[in-house]
Specification:
The protein is mainly beta. It is built from 7 helices and 27 strands. A hairpin with a 2-residue loop joins strand 9 and strand 10. The two termini are 55 Å apart.
Length: 452
């Protein structure tokens, strides 16, 4: 989604304005050009999580890096009145995981409240407004800010402009919720701002994993997520997917990739306006790190298995006959402790096939550190029939409708699978997918010469 332009960082004062400011005690050396106040976003994830990981998740989700606050949930069921001169918070999310900025309510007129005296995000965004209980004021000169716990939502944001934010008190809309269950621990966050959905889902999944494991460290996880949404024609639909993750460093940050990427893809699709109405995440996480890598391949010839330890080895095949390979997998690194694994894959060579062809085996696992932003899937790359045969597609086969986009998202490979592809000289490819009980990295190729 396109982000609105940022508010000006500085405002140049006229001669008379400068004189008036100096009379109020501001040094003349800085009064000529005053910086606008910034509202510092806070996220209630608890002090145990790593600030560097919070910053990385925020960067990938395209939101400002928040300050880490405490749990933030102790007062959220309490109605804290919003009064002139009192605390007011504007939230992107609240509940188990709160993301919000806190300032001062300036004035109340009827059911409308003016606050802050400066912008929050200076963007046409949807937020809830809350009364808040101040915990402390962090003194930092012009960049001082309040730390506070949210009260129950008291209304919704109408405008976020240069003069401040304008909210309406009263009934709160039915905002989407992110519900996650991690090894039996449940968290529910309400998300008024659609632009914050991917960050909230990712941050909640990360935080809950670290809390359940009582550490931010490596491990393995199987995650299933479901995204409910409303189409432009008001049709209610959903998309769901399951993925396995492994990380030797931080399993919490690794599991954020899939659900956040799918949320970004659905909301940012180019075909129609889609509104997400809810996200559920089910996560079975373990501190036991397990990962495979493809080591070598055996070739079946003359009724015997012939080892091919070197990728790129040349083999011969007969048209109209079967070809079989045996894939050997071992631990991806010294931190993983798995028994060796083998898997057999079989193809039938077309009778008309001749000449050079390629057989490749590739693990589907990847590391999130390779990506600057959450990956979104928008281009078609392959299509599979009911027999499990897959064919490479050209750019003309990229999705042209939202339905096609969802269909291709469902075809995304899992990280605990490897793909074995037999590709003819014509470019036609016959793919086979095998799933194993751990993520798989690595690749191996054999060069085939097909004769009659």
């Amino acid at each position: 989604m396109a982000r609105a332009a940022a508010a000006p960082k500085a405002i140049k004062l006229s001669k008379s304005e400068k004189s008036a400011v100096v009379k109020q005690g501001v040094p003349s050396s800085v009064a000529g050009q005053l910086r606008r106040l910034d509202t510092v976003p806070q996220v209630s994830v608890g002090k145990s999580v790593k600030g560097s990981n919070v910053a990385a998740i925020a960067r990938k989700a395209g939101v400002p890096t928040p300050r880490i606050a405490g749990s933030g949930g102790s007062t959220q069921s309490r109605d804290i009145p919003i009064v002139p001169g009192g605390n007011l918070a504007a939230s992107d999310s609240y509940g188990s995981l709160g993301s919000y900025g806190v300032g001062t309510a300036t004035a109340i007129c009827g059911d409308q409240v003016l606050a802050f005296g400066h912008p929050y995000s200076f963007a046409p965004s949807t937020k809830a407004i809350h009364g808040a209980s101040a915990v402390a004021v962090q003194a930092a000169g012009a960049f001082s800010f309040k730390l506070a716990n949210l009260g129950a939502p008291s209304g919704s944001l109408l405008k976020d402009g240069l003069d401040g934010i304008l909210g309406k008190l009263g009934a709160v809309p039915n905002y989407p919720k992110v519900t996650s269950t991690t090894n039996g621990r449940q968290s529910i966050s309400t998300v008024p701002n659609p632009d914050a959905l991917s960050f909230t889902a990712a941050m909640q999944a990360y935080r809950d994993s670290t809390l359940v494991l009582d550490q931010d460290a490596g491990g393995t996880s199987v995650v299933t997520w479901k995204i409910n949404y409303t189409r432009a024609n008001n049709a209610q639909q959903s998309f769901s997917r399951t993925e396995r993750y492994s990380s030797s460093d931080s399993i919490g940050t690794e599991i954020t990739m899939g659900v956040a990427g799918d949320i970004e893809t659905i909301l940012g699709n180019q075909f129609e306006d889609v509104k997400i109405t809810g996200v559920t995440i089910s996560n079975a996480v373990s501190s036991k790190y397990q990962a495979y890598k493809i080591k070598s391949v055996d070739w079946r010839m003359g009724g015997k298995w012939v080892p091919k330890p070197k990728s790129g080895s040349k083999v011969k095949a007969r048209a109209g006959r079967n070809i079989l390979i045996r894939v050997h997998m071992v631990n991806a690194d010294r931190k993983s402790n798995l028994p060796p694994k083998t898997s057999i894959v079989k193809w039938r060579v077309p009778k008309s096939a001749r000449g050079a062809s390629l057989l490749s085996v590739t693990g589907n696992s990847s590391n999130s550190d390779e990506f600057e932003d959450y990956e979104t899937y928008s281009d078609g790359t392959f299509e599979c029939n009911d027999d499990g045969e897959c064919y490479m597609l050209d750019d003309d086969s990229a999705p042209k409708t939202f339905d096609q986009l969802i269909k291709q998202m469902k075809l995304l490979p899992r990280q605990d699978e490897f793909n074995a592809s037999f590709t003819l000289a014509s470019g036609r490819s016959y793919d086979r997918t095998r799933r194993v009980p751990a993520t798989v990295t690595g690749s191996f190729n054999l060069k085939l010469n097909i004769r009659k």
